[in-house]
């Protein structure tokens, strides 16, 4: 696929995501978890990028990663790459204990061709006894979705609307001898899907719709659990 570096910010967006991958993956690996960003064709290999800073092939791997990010930007718009970086970083900051994956899936399977679907496996775990499904969704919104979206200064996406699906795990600790979250045993997967049409994204980029107003304008759906 032909790539173009003439779009403003494309090169820097690619490098920002590459840097975020390195910054987020290394701490995750240190505590026994992985982190990755995915394209529709499969994982970009973030774990390999951060596995060994002394790897003589590191520069080659980073070049391959950057090339793939340029491909994503060409196909889905340069801000699809910038958004990946922000979602990845925010999931890590929010306390991810498991792998973090961000995938640009293409036109939304649920909402249609006017929305770009992005799937975020947040790596977040929740204690079932500590809140309701709605409260967990609210935490994912406030800890990951809202700050990542509000940090964006533009939404040059193809398609122009946006659907982001967040996945996270819930554990029943009632029978646990430690009563502590254990990422190695997994858990029930819950989801939060949010949708923003092109006009709302434009308003958000201009800082006209933020905070409580943004939350009220976003389509907020937790009704379809993952099996």
Q: What helical percentage do the residues reach?
A: 40-55%
State the strand order across the main sheet: 2-1-3-4-5-6-7
Mean pLDDT: 81
Shape category? globular
Largest sheet: 7 strands, mixed
Low-confidence stretches: 1-16, 18-51
- The helix/strand order is HEEHHHEEHEEHHE
Domain module count: 1
So how many helices? 7
β-strand percent reads: 15-25%
Number of strands: 7
Rg from C-alpha positions?
Answer: 17 Å
Secondary structure class reads: alpha/beta
**Quaternary arrangement of the chains shown?**
single chain
Gap between N and C termini, in Å? 35 Å
3D structure, described in words:
With 227 residues, the protein is of the alpha/beta class. The chain has one domain. It is built from 7 helices and 7 strands, in the order αββαααββαββααβ. It has helices at 10-30, 46-51, 58-76, 78-93, 133-151, 198-205, 211-217, and strands spanning 35-39, 42-43, 100-108, 112-127, 161-171, 188-196, 219-221. Strands 2-1-3-4-5-6-7 form a 7-stranded mixed β-sheet. Helix 3 (58-76) crosses helix 4 (78-93). The chain is globular. The model is unreliable at 1-16 and 18-51 (pLDDT under 50).
Describe, in short, the structure shown:
The protein has helices at residues 10-30, 46-51, 58-76, 78-93, 133-151, 198-205, 211-217, and strands spanning 35-39, 42-43, 100-108, 112-127, 161-171, 188-196, 219-221.
Spell out the key features of this protein.
227 residues, alpha/beta, seven-stranded mixed sheet, 7 strands, 42% helix, 24% strand, disordered N terminus
Secondary-structure blueprint:
Blueprint: H1 10-30, E1 35-39, E2 42-43, H2 46-51, H3 58-76, H4 78-93, E3 100-108, E4 112-127, H5 133-151, E5 161-171, E6 188-196, H6 198-205, H7 211-217, E7 219-221
Parallel strand pairs: 1-3, 4-5
Antiparallel strand pairs: 1-2, 3-4, 5-6, 6-7
Helix pairs in contact: 1-3, 1-4, 3-4, 4-5
């Amino acid at each position: 696929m032909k790539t173009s570096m003439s779009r403003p910010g494309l090169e820097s967006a690619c490098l920002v995501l590459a840097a975020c991958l390195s910054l987020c993956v290394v701490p995750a690996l240190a505590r026994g978890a992985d982190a990755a960003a995915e394209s529709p064709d499969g994982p970009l290999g973030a774990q390999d990028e951060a596995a060994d800073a002394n790897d003589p092939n590191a520069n080659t791997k980073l070049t391959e990663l950057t090339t793939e990010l340029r491909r994503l930007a060409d196909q889905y718009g340069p801000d699809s790459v910038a958004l990946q970086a922000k979602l990845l970083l925010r999931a890590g900051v929010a306390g991810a204990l498991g792998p973090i994956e961000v995938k640009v899936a293409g036109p939304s399977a649920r909402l249609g061709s006017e929305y770009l679907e992005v799937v975020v496996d947040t790596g977040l775990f929740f204690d079932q006894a500590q809140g309701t499904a709605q409260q967990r969704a609210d935490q994912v919104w406030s800890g990951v979705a809202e700050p990542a979206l509000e940090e964006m200064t533009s939404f040059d996406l193809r398609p122009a609307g946006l659907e982001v699906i967040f996945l996270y795990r819930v554990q029943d600790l009632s029978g646990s001898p430690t009563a502590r979250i254990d990422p190695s045993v997994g858990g029930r997967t819950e989801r939060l899907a949010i949708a923003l049409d092109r006009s709302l994204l434009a308003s958000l980029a201009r800082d006209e719709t933020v905070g409580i107003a943004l939350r009220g304008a976003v389509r907020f759906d937790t009704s379809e659990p993952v099996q």
